[in-house]
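Page header: ASSEMBLY MODEL / two components / 770 residues total.
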Amino acid sequence: MSKVVVLGLDGFSPELVERWLEDLPNLKKLQQQGIWGTMESTVPPSTYPAWTCAQTGHNPGTFGFWDFSYRDDFSYGQPKLIDCTVRDKRVDCLYKILPILGQKVAMINAPLTWPPPRIPGGYSISSFMTPGLDRGFTWPESLKDEVYRLVGKYIIDASEPGVNYLQIEKDKVLRQIYDMDSQRFTLCKHFFVQKQCDYVFAMITGCDRMSHLFYRYLDEHHRRYDPDTRYANVLHDYYVWIDKHIGETYDVLNGDTVLFVHSAHGVQRLDGLINLNEWLIQEGYMVLHEYPSERTPLTELKTDWSKTKAWATGNTGQIYLNVKGREPQGIVDPDDYDSFLDELADKLIQIPDEQGNSLKTRVFKRKEIHSGPFAQYGPDLFILFDEYLWNTSEMVGYGRGNLYSFDKPSGPDDGADGLNGYFCIAGPGVPASGKHTGATLLDVAPTVLDVMDLEIPKEMEGKSLLGEEKPERPPEDHEKMRSRLKALGY
Amino acid sequence: MAIDKEISEKRERQCSKLIELSKDVVREAFEKFGHEEVGITWTGGKDSTLTLWITRQVCEEKGVPLPKAMIIGEGDEFQEIEEFVETIKKEWDVPLEVCRNEDVLKAANHTLNAPVKVKDLSERNRAELKRIGFDGEEFPFEAESQVGNHLMKTVVFNQFLERNSIKGIIQGLRWDEHPARFNDEYFEHKEMAHLVPEHTRIRPILHFTEKDLWDTYAAFNIPYCVLYEQGYRSLGAKTTTVKDSDIPAWEQDLENTEERGGRRQDKEKAMERMRQLGYM
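Prediction written out in full:
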């Protein structure tokens, strides 16, 4: 039975790994010794649902959120902010499953872990939503002294609460990101070596933040391409630095431990935003009592719901219908639900970029891709404008008929989260089967359980990436495991 | 306006029982203090309106007028609440006093978040600030802050008791609205203290859960403020209250979600942090 260390490299991109592989000797070695490939994200590839999907083996319909806010009735918009108490009521993450099976767990900065989860017999350090170190960021509480001793003042994210990291001076934020990620690698090794945990998860946030900050210097097709030579190699050098730390982490794992490196989405250049509610208004699907004089989010718009057939939320192409008998003032006849979605989809895929060039847009109905007890509250239609090179804006007030914008509502941003994540897994018991196609985030939790020789709950939707090639466990082991799980109520 | 919700006969009997328990508390209060020395606090919200409705029934049964009622004017009211209060006041003939800390309102020039200079306040208000240990030179005019809350609510409450020689004051608190209420009692005696008159707080509807309350509204056609129909669960000052849903309060999942969720200032902070990290 192997232990597992998971390095969650947020936003780590398979395209960039491929491009720079000769400069990434450690990843190259791991790829040769194990299994690697692209890892498909959720639709949309948003941090909270994506990492939750990886940690649970379930699709978002099971836990009911598609970005950072959600609804749990048929309200207009997504009025509630998702937090880990809601998530943990609805679905079991590995940090809940593993301690029940007798495994010692440490979680560092996993998305959606504030307050820090109380892991029986284990440890946790809370995520980027920690409002301040003085509000508590560790479980048990006393762990904080150990953290301070090991790494000094713990860095919550690329910026301290109160500051937008995309607006800090570049050299300063760069230092902060390196310092932050160094701390996480140090703590990861500590929980494995000193605390002897069976499962350590460390989220390395820098990969994501770096891409959002510096993509314009890397990609000459970027709308804001900047040939400034000071930053031309910043992302490359960071990937090289990450590779060095992956090597160091792998070196301290002894022979009974597997290293699993993966991202939950890639980051690619952002070409712009389609102002989706402006489009719905232009097409007559959404009706306002009053067009706003400044940019206004959906919740503050004066919408005439009695005449509105559809509305959009978020940044990543989610459309909800206003269905009769479902939403408070619904007008779309349930019998016309599918044909109306088809009508919308046909028009949406024809939206060109601002110069009239066509985009490679895909559209999914919810029931085609998400299922589960909370799926009914989710968006009815998902739109992937040019594979998410274009995001969307729910704001209205850009000027009537103005369908394009180029800054996110929070400000300028170089990157867009993409569907392709990266993974590589190597260590004892992992076959050297090389490049693997078809992996998705749903496979992460089953793979971790498989590596640890624990039974995979049959409700989990993914499958182990170790596949058939993994040596079979002796049959008596299976029996023992079954009775143990049965005793635990599985 | 009545809630369009089917209430079973059995459930209606349960609600009647809860009302009876509350009436007993009000009857006991009238016996203890005499109805002339009992007052009642009202906000126009669901809890205090139910309390007022129950008190009114006891008054009718005893053939006495409604006790003197107070409502606090914070300078940050929902218009919908003001309209509801006005309607009910007329319909039920409520002897209502609107209590405002005019001195503070004037010093803030009736402007939310404007700085209030301590030196511009009356002697009484300055003494009150001293009592709670505030020694700053100014504070923002905002009813939900500690200083604002004290001057805008607690002080006018104590003055209302004093002015009307009230010995028992009826309040619409409930055990399940907030963990801090779990230990509250139906009758709580408060000793006289500096700037605080001796009085007893009377809480007839402590035992109602949020679901009991809405079922009672539905079963007995009790009027309510229209904001609840729009999705608000708990009403406070206008600028610090948001709704977490567009579904009428009584149709929301009352048992698994937070009643005062729309009043958490943490929510705004969390949204702001997500924007700072590029997420929203």
